[in-house]
Amino acid sequence: MSDSENPEPARVAEMVESIREWLFKQPHLPHIEDREVLKKFLVNCKFRLQQTKSKMENYYSARTGFPAVFQERDPCAPEMRLAARATPFFPLPRSTPKGRKVVICKLDCDPDEFIPSDYMKRMFMVFDVMFCEEASARLDYEVVVDFRGFSFRHFLKLTTVARTFMSLVENVMPATLKGVHYVHVPPFIDKVAEFFKMLVKPKLRERFLIHKDLEAFYKVIGDQDILPSDLGGKEASIDELCDAYQRKIESYKKWFEEEENIRSNEDLRPPSSTNSWLMGTEGSFKRLTVD
Hints:
The chain is an alpha/beta fold. The chain is 51% helix and 9% strand.
């Protein structure tokens, strides 16, 4: 790691204060006093000030621009509990040998129970809790998609939110996606993989890996034992781990309530800070989620 990615504590404190002062000059953005929160953004942007400012701009603007995803987030709501049960999405208790979190994703419910907008809302609630709880220097993560039970009907419904989801992952979340691993793949997986690759920047496309051999997948992860038992590991089952993480998310109910209004106020946005990324994605999502 270069010195620019591992600055001295005094320099880090200076950069955090610089970000805090910058936020207070932005009339449309929330004024964040918690320096640990500011530091987390800075660390996850590799100590690059301009990138940190852009990430925070996108993060708090998305909370306003995508109300179906980032507003009225009650983890105890029936639809959120149904989304957790029907479409598991959660990080594993232990990280890889490289220090990366592993997020398990599974879609094997009745397609009629799959509500893409609820699924995406809960996904970003999981990401926010992960960001809150991450104690290490960086929040790097890999996603493992277990395709058992996945049908083409699931895929068709998923396409209605996929573009917005991938855009939010890339531009909003203060974390780095290091890999997407497809296991127990169906015959049409190549089309699914190509579809998602088209939605991300070129540098991420090579991180989408199809594993038709689980032994090869275990080598890439680095430690088979950290995986759920139904993926060949020594942790509890996917359903048990998902239930446990849902309880963790529900313990954040008050936090989500407090964060409800910590977002951009677009009425106060100065003309000079027009968010071109937000304007380019918001409209398409609003049209797609009406169906």
